[in-house]
Specification:
Blueprint: E1 3-7, E2 19-23, E3 26-30, E4 36-37, E5 39-45, E6 52-58, E7 75-84, E8 87-95, E9 104-109, E10 120-122, E11 127-133, E12 139-145, E13 147-152, E14 164-167, E15 176-183, E16 186-193, E17 201-207, E18 215-216, E19 233-242, E20 248-255, E21 269-276, E22 283-284, E23 293-297, H1 303-306, E24 316-317, E25 325-328, E26 331-334, E27 348-353, E28 359-366, E29 373-382, E30 385-393, E31 398-406, E32 409-417, E33 422-429, E34 433-439, E35 445-452, H2 458-461, E36 468-475, E37 482-485
Antiparallel strand pairs: 1-23, 2-3, 3-5, 4-24, 5-6, 7-8, 8-9, 9-10, 11-12, 12-13, 13-14, 15-16, 16-17, 17-18, 19-20, 20-21, 21-22, 25-26, 26-37, 27-36, 28-33, 28-37, 29-30, 29-36, 30-31, 31-32, 33-34, 34-35
Protein name: Family 43 glycosylhydrolase
Family: Belongs to the glycosyl hydrolase 43 family.
Organism: Enterococcus casseliflavus
Length: about 475
């Protein structure tokens, strides 16, 4: 049996709150995307090790409107993916979608690599929804609203039955992220507790009856990396899946801190760990911890899924508006508006995830049709924490600029006169520093500016996402364009 050692995370970069299901020999996985669009990326694998992006649950702006509040901390939280009666279903929360703060919804598809339905809005409070199909065919909705609750759900209409509270957790803070499984006559409820930071953990309870009472696992937490020096921290928010050979696995989120005091910048990433369910209570990972590396049988991986897609998951903030962004054969055509990186609202920007500490990004900006504005490369945590290098054009000057914003403080750190209308900008990252450069005609990178990574970490800037690197443009008036190539 060919085995391969894989290193967590299996989906590096900002990929929190994973949910997984299996259909035959195929595994499918979805993660949260918060304020980014297209939202809810769908990944496919044959072996749990090699994953390929095949689509998005939300790919049409008319499906829903993401909140454009500032700082960015709203949008699509904690989806669950399930396959029930030959159809795929996603439930999720659009946080901040209305005055009540939540908007739970259901979408479905018969072709997971294709388009998904418009949302069926669910009249129920809270976050972190999941669905469960019992042996008799009845389907249930579970949610988090101070505690874990259960309701019947009609997947065609979204109609919900009466609410029944079933578990308050093991006693730690913030019980959330429920998933329900049935095994050997028991209903097993898996949740997260301890908050989303370094006290994060998984706990479990079970009952012979769907509605309880639920008995807490005597070994809770069943998985946590809190209080350890392990390289992966804040592990939690898991979902379980069984492979065709009967083995159980969990996908969960975790972070890779960069220093002491602990800080992380890549976001919460998707990890994989084995689960031994040969005893009544499952045993997660290595003695209840998420390991950095695991052994996976990769015999099932066909050649096409062993090759990583060369195209990143390009996204934008809030909505992919064709009046602002057009795809081209080798890049994007940006139609800038007056919205900048520190503003609320849609803007002309395309982002991809930073997926490794040591990583380089580059893009060429053709600004011949930009007369009064700016275009450049940004490393972006949120609207109040970002660094950028850009070409700025006005009626009287044309300059390369390096700027940093940390909270309400911002500073233009360098300005250089630059005569050409086309510029290639480069960003080089390591654990400590982001370095911006301009690439000269000989292909050599000339320094433009640098900034510390620590000020763009979640512990400094807040929110639930991770570092994105983007190409953007803004302008004082319409009818200006910027071509972006080779990003």
């Amino acid at each position: 049996m060919p085995m391969r050692t894989i290193t967590n995370p299996i989906l590096p970069g900002f990929h929190p709150d994973p949910s997984i299901c299996r259909v035959g020999e195929d595994f499918y996985l979805v993660t949260s995307t918060f304020e980014y669009f297209p939202g809810l990326p769908i990944y496919h694998s044959k072996n749990l090790a090699d994953w390929q992006l095949i689509g998005h649950g939300l790919s049409r702006p008319e499906q829903l409107q993401l909140p454009t509040k500032n700082p960015n901390a709203f949008g699509l939280y904690a989806p669950t993916l399930r396959f029930i009666k030959d159809r795929f279903y996603l439930v999720c929360t659009n946080v901040g979608a209305n005055e009540g703060g939540e908007g739970n919804f259901l979408i479905w598809t018969d072709d997971i690599a294709g388009e998904w339905s418009d949302p069926i809005w669910l009249d129920t409070p809270g976050i972190d929804p999941t669905i469960f199909a019992d042996d008799d065919g009845q389907t249930y909705y579970l949610g988090t609203h101070k505690e874990i609750y259960l309701r019947t759900i009609d997947l065609a209409s979204g109609d919900l039955g009466p609410r029944q509270n079933i578990w308050t957790g093991s006693g730690a803070a913030d019980p959330e992220g429920p998933h329900l499984y049935k095994k050997d006559g028991y209903y097993y409820l898996l949740i997260s507790e301890g908050g989303t930071s370094y006290g994060h953990m998984l706990t479990m309870a079970r009952s012979r009856s769907l509605t309880g009472p639920y008995e807490a696992c005597p070994n809770n937490p069943v998985m946590t990396n809190r209080g350890t020096n392990l390289p992966l921290q804040a592990a939690g928010h898991a979902d379980l899946v069984q492979d065709t050979k009967g083995n159980w696995w969990a996908v969960c989120l975790a972070v890779r801190p960069i220093s002491y005091p602990l800080r992380h910048l890549l976001g919460r990433e998707t990890c994989l760990l084995p689960v031994d369910w040969s005893n009544p209570w499952p045993e997660f990972g290595e003695e209840g911890h998420l390991p950095e590396s695991i052994q996976v049988d990769t015999a099932a991986a066909p050649k096409e899924t062993q090759k990583k897609s060369s195209k990143p998951d390009y996204v934008t903030l809030f909505e992919w508006d064709p009046t602002l962004i057009e795809e081209e054969p080798h890049g994007f055509l940006l139609h800038p508006n007056q919205t900048g990186l520190s503003d609320q609202g849609k803007l002309a920007a395309v982002f991809q995830r930073q997926t490794a500490f040591d990583q380089q990004f580059q893009a060429t900006f053709d600004c011949r049709q930009l007369t009064d504005g700016q275009a450049g490369l940004t490393v972006f945590l949120n609207a109040t924490h970002h660094y950028e290098g850009y070409l700025e054009k006005t009626a009287s000057s044309q300059q390369l600029v390096f700027r940093r914003q940390i909270g309400s403080l911002w500073k233009v750190e360098k300005k250089l006169t630059y005569a050409a209308d086309t510029v290639t900008l480069q960003l080089s990252a390591d654990k400590e520093t982001y370095r911006f450069s301009v690439v000269d005609e000989q292909g050599q990178a000339q320094p433009l500016g640098r900034g510390e990574t620590k000020y763009l970490t979640t512990e400094v800037g807040g929110v639930f996402t991770g570092i994105m690197v983007g190409c953007y443009a803004s302008a004082s008036s319409s009818q200006q364009t910027v071509h972006v190539r080779d990003f």
